[in-house]
Fold:
Amino acid sequence: MKRQKAERRGRIAEWIAMFYLMAKGYRILGHRCRTPHGEVDIAAWKGGVLVIVEAKARSTYEAGMFAVTPMAQQRIARAAQTLAGRWRLHSAPIRLDVIVVGASVLPKHERAAWFDEPYR
Structure:
């Protein structure tokens, strides 16, 4: 029962994050995109950059950021490379973001959460 509640809360956070991104001019390319390396919560496009977003539902911003462990960061980066190849975006820079939902009235969007700038 507890796991089902957490899963539902996570799905709601993903939808809130998607609407937030769309309101900021991002084009959503995919949601819950599965790859051999794992799942990507949200894939979006803005300004010639493929933006991969991990959505976290947490009570504080810090808890949301710490929830993306170094191992999860590596998995997400590998999955992002796979998606870029699948969508023929080989030359596009990739940015890895985190959106924490529930930490405040508006979601907190951390751009380039674990790399200083878009990478390839």
Remarks:
- Residues 2-110 form a domain with the Trna Endonuclease; Chain: A, domain 1 fold (CATH 3.40.1350.10).
- The longest strand covers residues 27-35.
- The chain has a mean pLDDT of 90.
- The chain has one domain: 2-110.
